[in-house]
Amino acid sequence: MATLVFDIETAALGREHFDEAQWDYLMREAERLPEEAARQQRVAELIRQLNLYPFTAQVVCIAMLNAETSRGQVQFLAADFEEGAGAADPRVEYVPCMDEAELLAAFWDVARHYEQVVTFNGRSFDVPFLYLRSALLNVPITRKDWLGYRFTTEPHCDLAEQLTFYGVSGRDGAARRFNLDFYCKAFGIDSPKSHGVTGMDVNQLLMEGRHR
Question: What's the mean per-residue pLDDT of the chain?
Fold first, then answer.
């Protein structure tokens, strides 16, 4: 069975993408605070969180791995990528995309060839994000069955669900949820977070042009 492992990275849309009513709605929690310093702090926090939602952020990178061949592909937004740049591993192909619609179309073109997908928290984040961004940009979705019956591992195995036994313990029990970095270290696996960059850094890296 052809199995695709993937993870997405997202970045918040700029202020110019929202009208006044939308922006006021997004910042309404801060406006309720009585103190100016507290309001400013909360606004900064809310802005940092915008990359978590498909209506306030975009997909900027999708990393994929064929579990059978251990060959991968990284699709990312870049208007000026030089061929061969950053390709340290010959098993990984880097595919620059001019815009998000092109990136999503390229991803769905790859995804249609796989019967099985594996993610970490993909059921709660990656897949809904991809579905909604694709809908907003009118990009056809080739796999619409990744959010079906929750208590099955086919065609979508979400490791965050499996390692918590579908949340059987809640927040404090034996099967409580940990982050991916913690799980990787516990199982002796090289953590993707161990190189000093996390998803929360993407907004800043994108602004500085250091996301490639």
Answer: 91
Residue 26 in any domain: the answer is no
Ordered strands of the 71-77 beta sheet: 92-97, 71-77, 57-66, 3-12, 116-119, 156-158
The answer, yes or no, to whether residue 211 has pLDDT greater than 60, is no
84 compared with 147, residue with greater pLDDT: 147
Q: How many domains does the chain have?
A: 1
Residue 206 binned pLDDT confidence (cut-offs 50, 70, 90) = low
Q: Percentages helix, strand, coil for the chain, rounded to the nearest 5?
A: 35, 20, 45
Residue 48 falls inside a structural domain:
no
Q: What is the pLDDT of residues 153-190, one digit of tens each?
A: 999 999 999 999 999 998 889 999 999 999 999 999 99
Is 37 domain-assigned? Answer: no
Distance CA 68, CA 81 (A): 29
Alpha carbons 175 and 166: distance in angstroms, whole number: 9
Q: Which residues contact 59 (CB under 8 A, 6 or more apart)?
A: 8, 9, 10, 100, 103, 104, 129, 130, 133
Show the tokens assigned to 134. Answer: 């694709």
- Which residues touch 34 (CB under 8 Å, ≥6 apart)? none
111 residue type, one letter? A
CATH of the domain at 70: 3.30.420.10
Confidence of residue 202 (pLDDT cuts 50, 70, 90): low
Q: Is residue 178 part of a domain?
A: yes
Which residues span the domain enclosing 121? 3-13+54-207
